[in-house]
Amino acid sequence: MRAIGYIHVPKTGGLSVRMSINALKSQQVKYLGHRPNCENFEREYITVAVLRNPYDIFLSGYRFYRSMYVDNLPGYSIQDHIDKITIKGFDGYRNKWFKYKQPQHLIMFESLQHDWIELLRMYDIPHDNQLPHLHNTMCDKSLESVPTTCESEQIKSIVANDVKYYNKLSNDYIHKKGSTT
């Protein structure tokens, strides 16, 4: 049987999944890292990735960036991050992570703990029923920021294509889950 290959889409709980994979010490599950070309791994792995709303990914990316560089970037705002992403370009699901082909299994960020354990059960991989919870920037009060209405509209514009794609995939996920219960 092919091993499960986890593709780490940034800001989707990937460090927690990676730590879980390391704790499993199983040849049946491999961490593939930030690999945008799922197609290359299809022959060797049953690919899996976590799906999260792109708007939330954007804000989580801002908080993470602030948490890493807050001492070096005092006053770095959501607008600064919007400007940085606008210049750099937004690499989302369709442009980078799922450019060639979407993974065979999608796990929803909102139900990451449950979906990850269910995936391991589906493939009879022994586990401890726990997914470590790491890098929760929402717990750091110094990183609290709520976008203004203008910033929120700019973010929505930046992630608009990915939100459409996310909505389709999440609706497919919900429909698939509903048909298996």
Estimated structural class: alpha/beta
CATH topology: Rossmann fold
Structural domains: how many? 1
Rg over alpha carbons? 17 Å
What topology, given as strand order, has the largest sheet?
2-1-3-4
CATH architecture: 3-Layer(aba) Sandwich
> Which CATH class applies here?
Alpha Beta
The percentage helix is 40-55%
Helical run tally:
7
Mean pLDDT score: 84
Strand content: 5-15%
The description of the largest β-sheet is: 4 strands, parallel
Instruction: Write down how many β-strands occur, each being a DSSP E stretch of 2 or more residues.
Output: 4
What's the assembly state of these chains?
A: single chain
What is the H-and-E element order?
EHEEHHHEHHH
Low-confidence stretches: none
Gap between N and C termini:
26 Å
Shape: globular
Textual characterization of the structure:
With 181 residues, the protein is α/β, with parallel strands linked by helices. The chain is 47% helix and 12% strand. The protein has a single domain (3-180), classed as Rossmann fold. Strand 1, helix 1 and strand 2 (29-33) form a beta-alpha-beta unit. The relative contact order is 0.19.
Secondary structure blueprint with pairings:
Blueprint: E1 3-7, H1 14-24, E2 29-33, E3 45-51, H2 54-69, H3 78-88, H4 93-97, E4 105-108, H5 112-122, H6 149-158, H7 160-180
Parallel strand pairs: 1-2, 1-3, 3-4
Helix pairs in contact: 3-6
List keywords for this structure.
globular; alpha/beta; 7 helices; single chain; Rossmann fold
Summarize the structure.
The protein has 181 residues and is of the alpha/beta class. The chain has seven helices and four strands.
